[in-house]
Amino acid sequence: MLRESRRGAEVSLPSSPIPTRASFSTGVWRSLLALPVAACVALALHLSVSRADPSPDALSYTLFLGGILGAGVALVALQPWWPGLRRWMENMFPIMAVALLLLCVWEIITTGFRLLPLPYFPSPAGVLMSLLNDRALLFDSTWHSLILLLGGYAMGVIAGLISGVCIGWFSFARYWGMPVLKVVGPIPATAWIPLAMVVSPSAIFSAAGLIALAVWFPVTMLTASGISNTKASYLDVARTLGAGRAYLIFRVAIPAALPNIFIGLFMGLGASFLTLVVAETVGVKSGLGWYVSWAQGWAEYGKVYAALVIMAAFFSTIMTLLFKVRDHVLVWQKGVIKW
Amino acid sequence: MVAITESEASSLTVREVSKSFPAPDDPLSRPLALDAVSVSLAAGEMVSLVGPSGCGKSTLLRLLAGLETPDSGALLIGQEPIVGPSAERGLVFQDPNLFPWLTVRRNIEAGLVARGVLREKRDEVDGFMRLVGLEEFARAYPHHLSGGMAQRVALARALINHPKVLLLDEPLGALDAFTRMRMQDEVLRLWRARRTTMLLVTHDIDEAIYMSDRIVIMTQRPGRIERTIAIALERPRDRSSPEFLRLRGDILELLHFAGKPI
After folding, report:
1. Residue A241 belongs to domain with CATH number
2. Is A335 in the B-facing interface, judged by CB distances under 8 Å?
3. Model ipTM?
4. Residue-wise over A180-194: b if at least 16 C-beta within 10 A, else e?
5. Which of B30, B146, B148, B187 has the most CB atoms around its CB within 10 Å?
């Protein structure tokens, strides 16, 4: 009886969900090698399509792909001594490999078969060239966008937190503030551009104000609802512990509202990107939005795409930073493990 | 252990207190939740409040905590009227209601921070962590705690202000039977160590008999005091002794839960 049950356990072992050592390491190697292999494919494809015209565009793209291949191989060689690096590579390399393959598809469509009309659809090599040639102006534009965005966002967040806490906590502020919020808030900030141009002495100030307005609405709304939905028993407990009004607002209601406040901060960040680009396109004479419309005016679509690439990197970096801040501030929400 | 200071406890008096709330379905009528309730607790006494649900037990506790005001009647702590919430009257709910954004230690400190005395009294925090046996969990967040541990933190948080009265609103109601019995001993130990006046609302008649000096039985809504029973059993009490079981039968009969002869 005993022996039989033991054998039963042995038989069921291979079907258990825990991966055996062999299958584990092949899976790991498959993801680790994905990027170098994809880089090889992209490089081979690029060399074969661009054999016809060995332009400087083609050369820099060759170097770019070669650099990725070199870095990928070097990281694969390094990872046995650095487990953290390996985990990151396992996670990211398949995604990067697919991105490289998409670049290949793009190159086949443009340089390979010339399916799309020029100059509207340059090849990846052409975009890379524009990026490199115009790097000084692109860097300058990014810098201006960053200053404008951070200035406007900070103003919007501060104003939104103050008005949100007031509307959420004080009933008279709620009575008078809610109608304003409901009527003015939903108007897209960009709709105020004509007015902002007339009112403000400089385009930069009006753009910062518009970004702040775009951020203010979601931050106020979410902060107010978070504050007013604070669990009543938290407030009751705090009162019986001897808390005054300042403690109730700053140490109970605001921490309790923080998850909501962060939703507002994320929504506001999205709105601020949109408003930034529109404001730069129509009014401000600097920044990435301005750069895009300026390059388009000269029909330099390589530069348009270069600016879009920079924007993607720029905005997603800021988004990632906000996620990091949230993970740090809301560390108490993480995990559901019970001791 | 936390040093036992000179008797911190205070007596509690409820005199002819009535309280009504607007009915949820008809805001114009205000049915009575409590109808001329009078009860008093001597300093250092442990009293249980039992009765059917909706009889106003929790309302009475909220009135004593100062979170509600009575329609009529007087509420006194010692000789002073109760006008609002204060740190001298601690309150512990069935849900521990720990602040989830604070660690265990910061939760226990909350009362000191709220009163602005953290700097002078920081040394006491360790004593209270030890009192409820949670030193290792000082830096854990509440969602990491089991129900019993969370309720111990809630008790320590209420006790750190050295309240003269501790109001307990079914504090052990959400715990499993074994944890519950262990926590009953824990609360009794805290009570003996600090001699705080305690008023315990409970649904559990065994708990009431096991813990308290007196049991106050309330009637169905509107809440009135039906009977007060003094428990003269020696502590620690034996939950299966004949006297214990006899008291249990008597109380069940008063609450109309004893088996009816057919």
Report:
1. 1.10.3720.10
2. yes
3. 0.87
4. ebeeeeeeebbebbe
5. B187
Chain A residue with minimal CA distance to B142?
A332
Residue A110 belongs to what domain range? 16-118
Half-sphere exposure of B132 (CA within 13 A, CB side): 28
| Domains, chain B, with CATH or none | 23-94+165-254 (3.40.50.300)
Q: List beta partners, residue B47.
A: B199, B214
Within this chain, do residues A55 and A195 fall inside the same structural domain, yes or no? Answer: no
- The per-residue pLDDT for range B199-257, each reduced to its tens digit, is 999 888 889 889 898 999 888 878 888 788 888 888 888 888 888 888 888 888 887 77
Burial of B145 (0-12, 13-18, 19+ CB in 10 A): buried
CA distance A194 to A197: 5
Chain A hits for B65, CB-CB cut-off 8 Å, are 236, 240
- Please name the residue that has the structure tokens 């690029």: A46
Cα separation, A249 vs A264, in Å, equals 19
Nearest chain B alpha carbon to A338: B144
pLDDT of residue B260: 55
Where does the pLDDT of residue A338 fall: very low under 50, low under 70, confident under 90, or very high at 90 and above?
very low
> Minimal Cα–Cα distance from B229 to chain A, Å?
29
Domain count for chain A: 2
* Residue in the block written with tokens 């379905």: B25
pTM comes to 0.83
B94-147 residue pLDDT tens: 889 999 999 999 999 999 998 888 888 888 888 888 877 888 888 899 988 888
- Chain B residue numbers touching A332 (CB-CB < 8 A): 100-102, 141-143
A154: number of Cβ within 10 Å: 14
For B101, the closest of A231, A255, A338 (CB atoms) is A255
Nearest to B97 among A234, A242, A337 (CB): A234
